[in-house]
Amino acid sequence: MSTKSLELPIFSLVAKITGHDAEELERDMFLEGNLGLDSIKMMELLNGLVALIPQEMQPQFMETLPLQNLMQLQTLGDVVQIADNCLISQIDNSDSSPSASIINQEEQKTEKVEILSGQYFHLLGHWVVNSISLFSTLRLRGDFDSNVAWQSWKDLLHRHPMLRSRFIIPPDTTRFKDYEMVVMENPTPPDIPVTDIRHLHSEAQEQLINDELHRCLNYEWQMTEWPLHRFFVFRLEDSVYQLVLANEHLISDALGCHVILREFMEIYRAHVCGEQPNLQPPTTVQDYNELVQSINAWQDPEEDKALVEYVNRRGKDSYLWNPTGNTITSLCPKFHNRRFSLGKVITNQLIAQTREWRLPLNSLLVGAFVRAVAKFEQSKNEPIMVQVPTSGRVYPGIDASDVVGSFAQNLSISLDLPAPSEDWQRLLNRVHQEIQQGLVNGYDRAQTRQMAIAFRDNIVLEDGKIPERMLPMYRRILKSNLYCPFTGQTNIKNKGSGKYVVKLDNF
Questions:
Q1: Residues in CB range of 473: below 8 A, 6 or more apart
Q2: 247: burial class by Cβ within 10 Å (0-12, 13-18, 19+)?
Q3: What is the distance between the alpha carbons of residues 68 and 73, in angstroms, rounded to a whole number?
Q4: In what order do the strands lie in the sheet with 495-496?
Q5: What pTM was computed for the model?
Q6: Higher pLDDT, 499 or 47
Q7: What pLDDT was estimated at residue 4?
Q8: What is the CA radius of gyration of the chain?
Q9: Could you tell me if 130 and 188 are in contact, meaning their C-beta atoms sit under 8 angstroms apart?
């Protein structure tokens, strides 16, 4: 068999992953530089390659080409050559096609669910900033079985409809109201790749993980394709692993990520121990739909009135924090992340201080954020505007605390910058009062409902997308680029079945 035997199906697979036309692909194209195949897409490529292989040969193929070896390849031709070398004269080339082996999503039974009001904001964000990706990581100590992890993921899918969901964009769609969201009945998740980096020293390991998390943060999900979340793992030492969850914000907010990881670890523990997981009953599609319909139907005229009064008082202008005054030329924003760990002692001291001042930790963190911003802000006479996310999960008679979904809402609060002489307690009380006023008056609920109606019915699409010429305008309407999220306690157990959670990061 010639080395061209797998070229066509591999080119078709790469075209599907990257969005390129298969006819435009060349063997000398670089995987990352020309095709944009980052670590997550490389995992998708590996899963697709495995799907091309006869089942009885897949274990041998995985030994020959694990993820860490695939990530060292440079060009598309390298992929074709190594695949052919592994499988020469073994594969029938008459009907090798990734679409025949990859899960056919169109054949899956699906149920349609109503789009949540808060999701319309993220639909806009999906097209405007190209990435609304989240990631969470757990550092684990103990044995890790990727097969058990895969089965745990499969079990988890049946507990939350949003983990089985994707969007359908009908042809010639002109409004977001024409989008559909469906939940697949019984999808099979891809493998959970484990990349062994034990050969690297600790600093190189941290740098590699940070690079991968940065790619996760800027990953562009295809909302019409499942899954819209992924797990992958790095092996740091013989018994130390880094578990990463990456997801499209459209299916889960940060609190939902807590639920995903918490239940994933409990299901994993139960499998290892031969027990039933200690979890609440699963959320059915009907449960989820009724929850969404109740939230979408909520309207309080008093909340609408209070929001109007607040906006009129504080102004309708957007706020751009740009202390250096640099000219912004990028049409496609990229997100960067720096991780800091306060440690147990300082964290406990902060929590103790909230008790003394009778303030929630969220208000303390927002206050510290505002004081940090004030040190860089040049226009001392003008107030700043900060976006403070809220859960969006609790309405009168409605509680979605344990449900995976994109419920998060937002408070846009205006604050006068603190004077250098303003003491901490006065500043924090002022911040806390502003946040509480927004929560009590329902600014977040009223704003979410009003934006949903406007975005759903009024934003003009072309072939289901926001026209590129309109993107700069929508980027300018962002209320503020200062964003201070706090997701609170994860409630993930620190120990179980020889597996210890060392630390969690959530972004």
A1: none
A2: buried
A3: 9
A4: 194-196, 229-237, 240-248, 133-141, 499-506, 495-496
A5: 0.77
A6: 47
A7: 40
A8: 24
A9: no
